[in-house]
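seq:
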Amino acid sequence: MSELDRISTTYGGLLPDTLNEIFDYKSQLDKIVVGAENNHGTQAPTKVARYYSPRAVRRALEYLSIDYVTLGLEVPDWARDMLRNDNNNNDNSNFNSLHS
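struct:
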C-alpha cells in the first residue's frame, strides 16, 4: 500500500478522489514493487545504517514525532531495528562494565 493510498483510506471523504485526480496513483498501485523485491529499489534501509548513527535517527524521530503522531505514520522498520539493536548493545556494554 502506498502512502497516498494509506492516507486517503485513513481520512476518506473526498480525499481519495482528489489525491488520485492530482497524482493518478491508483492506476500505478499494481505496478509498484518496493523493498527487496524491487531490483531497481534504493535499498535505503541498508544505506541508512552506513551513514546515520542510532543517535542521529533517534534525534530525527524526536524532532519529527509530532508529524508521526498527527499523521498517524509508523516508524519505519529499519529505524526500529536500528534503535532496538543500539539498545541491546548498550544494555550489554552496561552489564559488562558493571560486572568487570
